[in-house]
Amino acid sequence: MTSERTPKSFSRRALLGWGGTGLALGVTASGGVAAAAIGISDDAEPGQAIPFHGAHQAGIATPVQDRLHFAAFDVTTDDRNALVAMLKEWTRAAEKMTAGRAVGEGAVGGPPEGPPDDTGEALGLRPSRLTLTIGFGPTLFTNDRFGLASRRPPALIDLPVFPGDNLDPGRSGGDICVQACADDPQVAVHAIRNLARIGFGKVSVRWSQLGFGKTSSTTPDAQTPRNLMGFKDGTRNISGTDTAALNDHVWVSSKDGPPWMAGGSYLVARRIAMRIETWDRTSLKEQEDIFGRTKGEGAPVNRKREHDEPDLTAMLPDAHVRLAHPDSNNGARMLRRGYSFTDGTDGLGRLDAGLFFLAYQRDIRRGFLPVQTRLARIDALNEYIQHVGSAVFAIPPGVRDATGWWGKELFS
Q1: Which helix (H) or strand (E) holds 265?
Q2: What is the domain range of residue 309?
Q3: In this structure, is residue 238 part of a structural domain?
């Protein structure tokens, strides 16, 4: 990234002075109309920049990048004005980083007596299709510490504890989330790091997750990616050019309420551990019966091709695809942007690996909740997976122009 310097008379350092100091494995998903309109695909040139401004936030319907750094923050200040000021500063930083530019005056060239405005590890790197997507968790609205209690959307529910859940509080929840997706992992990490630096004293990182190997594609004409179990994941994802499906299942309508969420979405994030050592000792036939698809082609039971319409009745009653299919859930669909992860070992000599599930939807009560309720009860895959982290967030609409900022509709 290149350094974009501002005139000294308007720089933060000039104002402060030289000594100034100043932070589930389902089968549904979707893509982006704006991205499709400018010809971006999952296999686009990694140097491209994704437009930051728009009616919807980038990073939802945008074609899925290769890498993820997701962070959930706790708000540590009780000062509403300080939080709003931080969100404005975050927005200006996001505008620059997604365009491939450095934050503020950059990592070099400023006064040597003070810390740089940018942490510098993305110097010389291209934008790598970086997108930054922000969301607000239920706890931001509790206790009315910011006067937001009455503005909590009814669709921003507290999820129940599903059968089989073993949720770690240290990997769950959060007041604010930021999802950074890019084709270069260093670009994604750089973005989260700089937002954490800007927010120091106002927010703190509650938990974060690195992801690789996208497990869902929002461009169905491209090759379907595979999860760590070796199966194609996201075959029935909504196309990025399917405006009707996006409006029906992903974007919040002005009729849904509250008004500040119109054009936004709701995110469910779940950290799903896979017992891959046990899975690797399971016969191929049993693996295919569990999913309801062939491992090689990805074809449904009794079908030849991946995209053939599945015959759900030909699958076992507890097959994953059969249970998660929209036809089994009153048409419920979600936009998937999940990523694989490996985080060392679990302390028992096994890999700590799995799926970081990210699903965007118009209403959690009609999307994730009924589907996961069904899966948690009888899915044959449950023998090999466990949900160990969970969070939900309201994703506001996009920042339309340079005068807007993240959360403006909520705080105004």
Answers
A1: strand 265-274
A2: 24-411
A3: yes
